TrEMBL record:
The family this protein is said to belong to: Belongs to the GPN-loop GTPase family.
Keywords: ATP-binding, GTP-binding, Hydrolase, Nucleotide-binding
Record-level Gene Ontology MF annotations: ATP binding; GTP binding; hydrolase activity
InterPro entries: Gliding_Motility_GTPase, Gpn, P-loop_NTPase
Classification of source organism: Bacteria, Bacillati, Actinomycetota, Actinomycetes, Kitasatosporales
Pfam families recorded: ATP_bind_1
Transmembrane segments: none
PANTHER family named in the record: ATP/GTP-BINDING PROTEIN-RELATED, GLIDING MOTILITY PROTEIN MGLA
Official protein name in the record: ATP-binding protein
Length: 206
C-alpha cells in the first residue's frame, strides 16, 4: 500500500486498542529453554495480534544450540515475543516471551526489568535446562510459577516428583498445561496471579 502524499499513517487496529476500563497493567515474562513453547503460549493466549521476532534457523546454530526434542523447529525467537491479555476489565497483563537459546540469554536482563512475575515453561525431556532459567529469576528476585508443557512424546511424572527433581520449594506453584490451548495458557497465568496475590498479602512481594 502506498502512503506517499498522505498526511496520515495507519495506526493500530481497533481490536489492539487498550480497553478503556483498564486501570492497571502488569508485566509478565515467559521463560524457558529452547523449544519449550514460549512463542506458542504468547500466541495462544494474547487478545491482540502477537509481536514475534522469529527468524529462520541456520547452520550457525549447529553444535551451539541444544535442539533436543525440537529437531523439527525451523524458526527461533531472537529477541522476544509480545502479547496482551485482559484478566479483568481493570487488569491487563503484558506478556514478554524470552529467547530460548543460551546465546541469546544476554537479552533476558532487559526483559526482566519491571516484571512483576514469571512463568517458567518446562519440558520433561530436558528438565536440566530449567535450573539455569530459575536461577536467573531468583537472582533478579522475580517470583515465578512452573508450567509443565505437555508434549505428546514427553514422559509424564507426578507433580511432586517434578517438584523434587526441580528442587522447588513447597510454596512455588507447579501446574501442567498445553500451551496450544488458550484456556490452558490462561489457567497458568491465573495461577501466577494468585501466587503473586498471596505473596503481596503476606508482605513478601514489595
Amino acid at each position: 500500500m502506498d502512503f506517499k502524499g498522505s498526511d496520515t499513517l495507519p495506526g493500530p487496529r481497533t481490536e489492539d486498542h487498550l480497553p478503556h476500563t483498564a486501570q492497571a497493567a502488569v508485566k509478565i515474562v515467559i521463560v524457558g529453554g529452547f523449544g519449550v513453547g514460549k512463542t506458542t503460549m504468547v500466541g495462544s493466549v494474547s487478545e491482540i495480534r502477537p509481536l514475534t521476532t522469529e527468524e529462520t534457523m541456520t547452520q550457525a546454530g549447529i553444535g551451539v544450540d541444544d535442539d533436543y526434542g525440537s529437531e523439527s523447529k525451523t524458526a527461533t525467537t531472537v529477541a522476544m515475543d509480545f502479547g496482551r491479555i485482559s484478566i479483568t476489565e481493570k487488569l491487563v497483563l503484558y506478556l514478554f516471551g524470552t529467547p530460548g537459546q543460551e546465546r541469546f540469554w544476554f537479552l533476558w536482563n532487559g526483559l526482566f526489568e519491571g516484571a512483576l512475575g514469571a512463568v517458567v515453561l518446562v519440558d520433561t525431556r530436558r528438565l536440566e535446562v530449567s535450573f539455569d532459567v530459575m536461577g536467573r529469576l531468583e537472582e533478579r528476585g522475580v517470583p515465578f510459577v512452573v508450567a509443565v508443557n505437555s508434549f505428546p512424546d514427553a514422559p509424564r511424572y507426578p507433580i511432586e516428583e517434578l517438584r523434587t527433581a526441580l528442587d522447588l520449594s513447597p510454596d512455588i506453584p507447579i501446574i501442567e498445561c498445553d500451551v496450544r490451548r488458550r484456556a490452558s495458557s490462561k489457567d497458568v497465568l491465573m495461577t501466577l496471579m494468585g501466587f503473586l496475590h498471596s505473596l503481596a498479602m503476606s508482605g513478601a512481594l514489595t
